[in-house]
């Protein structure tokens, strides 16, 4: 008889531990993420063809957020990818149903014929739904690679001329942000036009713009963009470029370059900004889980204590 009672004692104790574990899972809203799929290279002609081990069940983990970092190498025609799963809530400002995209765009204009030195690095983090980072990669990569190159060429055409001169024969002028009045451009025959613009989504006091003629060894563009859904004070946009066309850093051209880059990044967040509450199905699921887990949390310690006391009388 004592053996049977002890068996039930251990069975109940294990059940309580399982219930406690389940309540933790419900409270924190874990999602399934691709994680054991890193240092993967895919070519432009087969962008969705991940290795077999990235499709196996063992490549997934439950976590608080999913993430992916990928570099697009236009010259060598491939994309390098790293998927991750994270339990660091600081990654998403400790918010539920959150998405963050950061993108660095680097364009070097002076290259050999037929060789375009374009490099894109993107990092996307989310907790909106199961495997949301992988979904984001698969939904955006084709346009970034195939349609996006046309956009990058358009940017280059607006800022760079392969036959432009540097020296005495050049008639190039550049906008100088230190100049006031109607005439804000200066002669820049021996240099190139420079622009740096910093824009912060919720802190306009930090916004800066600098335009000038400067000595430079080459023309380039570098852009850093951070987008959040839901909105965040960390949202920002930094644009810097050196160009060799006449007055290519003028005020009316800078917004056009910004718009081309923003069109290119393919930022279409799942969570609509106008809706501050989650979808009804997700809300019901989360509330049900939390209510259930609260009951479990209260009940489990009581049951465990009762079983332990029972042990003394066996």
How would you sum up this structure in a few lines?
The chain is built from four helices and 13 strands. It is an alpha+beta fold and 314 residues long.
What does this molecule look like?
- β10 (192-200) and β11 (208-214) form a beta hairpin.
- Residues 16-27, 272-304 and 306-310 have low confidence and may be disordered.
- The chain is flat and about 65 Å long.
- A 9-stranded antiparallel β-sheet has the order 2-5-4-7-6-12-13-10-11, with helices on one face.
- It is of the alpha+beta class and 314 residues long.
- The protein starts with a helix and ends with a helix.
- The protein has helices spanning 2-28, 132-159, 254-264, 280-312; strands at residues 31-34, 37-43, 60-63, 65-73, 78-86, 99-108, 117-126, 173-175, 185-187, 192-200, 208-214, 220-229, 236-243.
- The chain is built from 4 helices and 13 strands.
- Helices cover 32% and strands 30% of the residues.
- α1 (2-28) packs antiparallel against α4 and α2 (132-159) packs antiparallel against α3 (254-264).
Chart the SSEs and their pairings.
Elements lengths: L1 H27 L2 E4 L2 E7 L16 E4 L1 E9 L4 E9 L12 E10 L8 E10 L5 H28 L13 E3 L9 E3 L4 E9 L7 E7 L5 E10 L6 E8 L10 H11 L15 H33 L2
Antiparallel strand pairs: 1-3, 2-5, 4-5, 4-7, 6-7, 6-12, 8-9, 10-11, 10-13, 12-13
Helix pairs in contact: 1-4, 2-3
Low-confidence stretches: 16-27, 272-304, 306-310
Strand content: 25-35%
Question: Please, what is the oligomeric state?
Answer: single chain
Shape: flat
The whole-angstrom Rg is 28 Å
Overall pLDDT score: 79
- How would you classify the helix and strand content by structural class? alpha+beta
**Residues in helix, %:** 25-40%
- Strand order, sheet with most strands: 2-5-4-7-6-12-13-10-11
Question: How many strands?
Answer: 13
Distance between the termini: 9 Å
């Amino acid at each position: 008889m004592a053996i049977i009672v002890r068996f039930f004692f251990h069975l109940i104790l294990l059940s309580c531990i399982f219930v406690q574990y389940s309540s933790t899972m419900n409270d924190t809203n874990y999602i399934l993420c691709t994680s054991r799929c890193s240092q993967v290279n895919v070519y432009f002609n087969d962008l969705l063809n991940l290795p077999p081990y990235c499709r196996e069940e063992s490549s997934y983990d439950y976590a608080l957020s999913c993430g992916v970092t990928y570099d697009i190498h236009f010259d060598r025609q491939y994309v390098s990818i790293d998927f991750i799963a994270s339990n660091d809530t600081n990654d998403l400002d400790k918010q539920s149903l959150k998405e963050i995209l950061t993108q660095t765009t680097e364009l070097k204009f002076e290259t050999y014929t037929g060789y375009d030195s374009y490099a894109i690095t993107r990092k996307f983090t989310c907790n909106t739904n199961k495997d949301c980072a992988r979904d984001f990669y698969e939904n955006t990569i084709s346009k970034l690679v195939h349609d996006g190159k046309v956009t990058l060429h358009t940017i280059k055409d607006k800022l760079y001329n392969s036959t432009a001169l540097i020296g005495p024969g050049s008639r190039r002028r550049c906008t100088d942000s230190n100049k006031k009045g109607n005439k804000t451009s200066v002669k820049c025959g021996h240099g190139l036009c420079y622009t740096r613009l910093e824009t912060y989504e919720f802190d306009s006091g930090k916004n800066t713009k600098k335009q000038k003629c400067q000595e430079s060894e080459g023309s380039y563009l570098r852009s850093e963009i951070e987008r959040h859904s839901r909105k965040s004070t960390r949202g920002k946009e930094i644009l810097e470029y050196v160009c060799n066309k006449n007055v290519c850093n003028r005020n009316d051209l800078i917004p056009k370059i910004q718009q081309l880059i923003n069109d290119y990044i393919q930022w279409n967040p799942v969570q609509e900004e106008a809706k501050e509450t989650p979808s009804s199905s997700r809300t019901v699921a989360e509330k049900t889980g939390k209510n259930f887990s609260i009951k479990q949390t209260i009940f489990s310690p009581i049951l465990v204590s009762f079983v332990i006391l029972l042990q003394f009388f066996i």
